[in-house]
Amino acid sequence: MTDNENKKDAKDRNQAAITTFTGIPVTNSQGEEKYFDFEVGQEGGYGQYARITMDGCQLILDEHLAYVKGDLAEEWREPAIAKLILLLEVELNRDGSFQ
Q1: With contact defined as beta carbons under 8 Å apart, do 62 and 47 qualify?
Q2: Domain range spanning residue 15?
Q3: How many whole angstroms from its chain centre is CA 21?
Q4: Which one is predicted more confidently, 10 or 56?
């Protein structure tokens, strides 16, 4: 999905994407690499969320990066969350705010 498609999808779900990262490689503990898309945003009255997608599967996290729902395989959850944290730290350090 492109950034514009992600933002449209977020709006359709009454969510506003704060930032997106697409086509990001993630490696699991077995050394297998897959490409993920990450979206961080604000959802209606529920607060911030993170959405991680890969090969048609997704993982939804709350503002504390705790599991909310999703069908992403367990073996990919921890490395994907770790990559999201790294991406957010880099984005924050780049200019002091999320774009």
Answers
A1: yes
A2: 3-95
A3: 7
A4: 56
Check the CA dihedral 45-82-35-69 and report its sign: negative
CA distances 27 to 43, 59, 63, 75, Å, are 29, 16, 24, 10
Q: What percent of the chain shows pLDDT beyond 90? A: 65
Sign of CA dihedral 48, 93, 26, 10: positive
User: Which pTM value belongs to this model?
Assistant: 0.77
Rounded Cα distance, 43 and 52, in Å: 15
Q: Between β-strands 33-43 and 47-54, what pairing exists: parallel, antiparallel or unpaired?
A: antiparallel
Q: How many structural domains compose the chain?
A: 1
Contact present, 69 and 46 (Cβ < 8 Å): no
